[in-house]
Amino acid sequence: MTEVPVQGGGVPSRWAQFYALTKPRVVQLIVFCAVIGMALAVPGWPDAAQWQRMGAGALGIWLIAAAAAAFNCLVERRIDARMKRTSWRPTARGELSPTQALGFSVALCAAGALILLLWVNALTLWLTLATFVGYAIVYTVWLKPTTPQNIVIGGASGAMPPVLGWAAVQGSLGPEPWLLCLIIFLWTPPHFWALALYRADDYAKAGLPMLPVTHGNAFTRLQVFLYTWILLAATLLPYLMGMSGLLYLVAALALGLRFCWFGWRLWRRYDEALARRTFWFSIWYLALLFAALLIDHYVPIGIR
Ligand code: HEM
Ligand SMILES: CC(C)=CCC/C(C)=C/CC/C(C)=C/COP(=O)(O)OP(=O)(O)O
Description:
Layout: H1 14-21, H2 24-41, H3 48-75, H4 77-82, H5 98-119, H6 122-143, H7 150-158, H8 161-170, H9 175-198, H10 200-206, H11 211-214, H12 216-240, H13 246-268, H14 272-298
Helix pairs in contact: 2-3, 2-8, 2-14, 3-5, 3-6, 3-8, 5-6, 6-7, 6-8, 7-9, 8-9, 9-12, 9-14, 12-13, 13-14
Farnesyl diphosphate is lined by residues 23, 26-27, 30, 61, 64-65, 68-69, 72, 76, 86, 128, 131-132, 135, 144, 157-158, 160-161.
């Protein structure tokens, strides 16, 4: 969980409170995936203009993703207050008022939109704003409180970063960024349901229909296991489509089989510590898989 830095008196500083609303570590990984989408969109080493567009794109996407996270904290302040994991959030504790959170989210979103409009391109601006709406409104307001498939459908917005990154550099889209989007889309269920397994009581208390609450622990474990295999298959596509080389293939297989191994063990027998490890592995998995795509792009080995 993201810790809020605390000043001498035990009260987090105002800046730390606002910063915490942006779900910093989630957004860092989102921006990382977007930046890799950008790098893959440039055939060789970026020139000066491309570097500038990449920097502005990363900043704009960062600001709008942070705005979406802050908006989520605003909408969910009462739900967050009921869950142990989220009850520390400044909006849940009433340390930041709804007006302050809304003003902060609007300011971040406007700043990000302006940067994308002035220094990147209109396609990236509209796609990033659509992603904001997808997460902050469609997922948070509509899907999350109504269906256990909330994170599957809502996961589409979390999966957008490589598409945004690609659009920022090329100003158009092709099959490659959508393939990366598919990978994050299929990664989201095992990422989230591993956590939901050991946070099921929290979700039940908050009245949220997460899969372990509505369909039980065993069914959720089966879903985690199945998704790890579907994910493994999807991660082979960049190699099979000639987008990545052997280095990526080896990384995708090694990481994917490890994720399947976590899924298999979790499915066979529930163990809370194992569910926690599966969740944390999911984060390393995505970061390393995307790092492998990047390294492979600059150090191509084998047939493409
Ligand atoms: C609908 C989609 C998603 C859902 C429901 C979801 C859910 C969650 C939840 C509930 C946590 C909090 C864990 C905690 O407080 O201990 C978390 C953590 C995290 N998620 Fe996701 N996630 C989603 C998509 C993503 C995406 C797209 C990324 C990045 C590309 C991501 C990266 C992370 C990271 C890095 C953390 C760890 C945060 C920390 O260290 O505090 N998640 N996720
Ligand atoms: C513009 C752009 C790139 C937007 C990205 C949107 C975004 C921040 C997606 C990440 C998904 C996320 C933080 C899910 C957390 O689930 P949750 O909200 O259910 O978790 P919680 O219970 O911790 O609030």
